[in-house]
Structure formats: structure tokens, C-alpha cells
Amino acid sequence: MASRTPHTNETTRQLKEDLHHLTSTIEELVSATADDSRSNIKELRERAEKRLKDTRDRLESRGEKLYDEARDSLYQQADACDRYVHENPWTSVGLGAVAGIVIGMLIGRR
């Protein structure tokens, strides 16, 4: 399995931190409803809504960034594969033939 990059570790740490903040705010909101102080509930509800919005925005931003990085990486890999095939056509044909033989043998065993 590939090792995690520092960027992935930072993203994971930030996600855990965001979820921890959101969880603690929701817990405060739940405990505040027990004493039924209307001003306290309103304040905590506003804080919870703000943290939920902030967390959602950060998660969406990270999701878009991860999608873009994955898409760019896939394009780079596809380009590298295309260049290899054009630079080494006979090797590519040989690899394709070997892969076809292996798949044919595996299917033939059924």
C-alpha cells in the first residue's frame, strides 16, 4: 500500500478537527436544551449552524480539490501510457498478447 503524503495527513487531521468541533458544539446544544434557557439555546444553535456551515464548506472545498488532483493524475498517467505505446509499439503489442493469453487461460480453466 502506498504511503500517505503529507498533504493527505494534513487533510485527515483537519477533517478530524472539524468533526470534533462540530461534535462538541452539538453536544453543547443538546446539554443546553436540558436547562431550557431560551437565550442559551438560541446562542448555541447559532454557533452550531455556523460550525456546520463552515465544516460543510471546507469539506466541499477539499472534495473538489481531491477530485481535481485525482483527475489531473489520471490524465498524466494516461498521457504517459499513450506516449509509451507510441514510442514502443511492438513491446505494447507483445504485452497485449501476453495479457490476452493469460486471461484466456484463466477463463479456459472454468
Automatic annotation (TrEMBL):
Main location: membrane
Domain DUF883: 14-59, 82-110
Alphabetically ordered keywords of this record: Cell inner membrane, Cell membrane, Coiled coil, Membrane, Transmembrane, Transmembrane helix
InterPro entries noted in UniProt: DUF883_C, DUF883_N, YqjD/ElaB
TM region positions: 90-108
Membrane topology: Single-pass membrane protein
Lineage: Bacteria, Pseudomonadati, Pseudomonadota, Gammaproteobacteria, Oceanospirillales
PANTHER family in UniProt: INNER MEMBRANE PROTEIN, INNER MEMBRANE PROTEIN-RELATED
Species for this entry: Billgrantia endophytica
Protein name stated in the entry: DUF883 domain-containing protein
GO molecular function, one term: ribosome binding
